[in-house]
């Protein structure tokens, strides 16, 4: 339904306006950025201040009458001469995708025409998965394209690359800079902070007319903040799996028996010097095993991805489970049961239900009393979650969060007479020790109970994130994959196997930094505002509940669910996705 087909309430208009940036102004960063975004302390707030008393009432009046895409999204249509483009309609918006499948592997030689070597730089989260998937898919296609890993001399990752079958003897493992110089398609999969520190040397070593491949738009954001861009003599593309590397590999291996299973990916063509970029990007995505690939831009990708990591994917989940665990135990629930009703509930039954049936199925599975408890939690949590999410998005969009990641990466090492400050672990606190005990006795396949209050808070978070992305002009494909599918089909299953703290301690550097920074914000705002509202038995925002039940995103999620493979990711309890540099035993 279009925005013109309804008459929004005054509150809806106010909130819609508050989610739209002012006209761009040059702020001295070398690119046009919104002063409204960067000077966020000048914007209207959505606090529900219990002490003041009026905030909750204000939030209760501010309701979206009918959700719709806010700012004009960029045109995301594309042309491909190799693969079949399909149109899908998501919540009334036409978008274009390419379906994956192992039956498409014979098309890979055409997609990679002119490419003799694909260089993979980095052996962290994405590097091992993408290199192995590409190698295996090209072997099925009987292609002579070489996938070569480039690593520093003495790198601790060399042992793992050798174990995965990449060797100097067969020309698939070599020095990082020699690999950069000799590759026709270079996949730069080192950490975001490392990209920021090494991009000039990478660019200087790349061949003219070669293709730079990214799996995250972070580098573009960093360059924009410096008033720079990519060299004009190379193509720049991105394929961004909506899941961490171990999930990309795990589902690819599982899908060998059923014509493919994997993690959906977005793709972007930022710069195309010779007309090959789109087909190369789509070939890369198909070779990774992506069930479907949708178009985005590098800028939209980094905004949604960095934001998502700090929200529903990791940071917010970390924050809300700690807040809920503390609330439940303070109200007399045993520690074991509190852990089960928070972490196990979210990463287990809630995620499984949303993955296969959608968010409404979570609500409909509750008893009438359970629905009342869900409604109370949802009504009280939605706007506090949106408050933090909104601020976080703007910090990403104006470059503040990107700069924070770059600076944090440099503090990992001694400099300027100050000691190194690498990230510490969070898994030694009491809650996470309780989690170890719970998982030790958990029956195989147990997904935990469906706790109504936990479900209400979690679904409110998910819907608030969807709405912020929607108002910021992101496509439904990107919104659903970034806020729903990546969460319930990739990250949460690993968290169910090993615990949220294990993920916070071991995923990508950018995500770990974001979780540590933003998780406390979600914890505090729920404790200080949402839970206070519930305990005061304040009136529910019935319009907010009605909007959730009728939101068009549910139909869009159903369409996307039909495009997913029939296999669910299988994660063993000892699933290992620790990057080599984090291994205590590495030398």
From TrEMBL:
Which PROSITE patterns does this entry report, sorted A to Z?
KARI_C, KARI_N
Q: Where is the KARI C-terminal knotted domain?
A: 297-445, 446-582
Q: Which cofactor does it need?
A: Mg(2+)
Top-level taxon: Eukaryota
- Binding residues for substrate: 367, 508
Listed SUPFAM superfamilies: 6-phosphogluconate dehydrogenase C-terminal domain-like, NAD(P)-binding Rossmann-fold domains
Query: Top EC class per UniProt?
Result: oxidoreductase
One GO MF annotation is: protein homodimerization activity
Question: Does the entry feature the keyword Magnesium, yes or no?
Answer: yes
Chain coiled-coil ranges: none
Give an example GO biological process. isoleucine biosynthetic process
Q: Which reaction does it catalyse?
A: (2R)-2,3-dihydroxy-3-methylbutanoate + NADP(+) = (2S)-2-acetolactate + NADPH + H(+); (2R,3R)-2,3-dihydroxy-3-methylpentanoate + NADP(+) = (S)-2-ethyl-2-hydroxy-3-oxobutanoate + NADPH + H(+)
In terms of one coarse class, where is the protein primarily found?
A: plastid
Q: Which residues bind Mg(2+) 1?
A: 305, 309
Q: So what EC number does this one have?
A: 1.1.1.86
Q: Where in the cell is it found?
A: Plastid, Chloroplast
| Pathway where this protein functions | Amino-acid biosynthesis; L-isoleucine biosynthesis; L-isoleucine from 2-oxobutanoate: step 2/4; Amino-acid biosynthesis; L-valine biosynthesis; L-valine from pyruvate: step 2/4
In the record, the note on similarity to other proteins reads: Belongs to the ketol-acid reductoisomerase family.
Any idea what this protein is called?
Answer: Ketol-acid reductoisomerase, chloroplastic
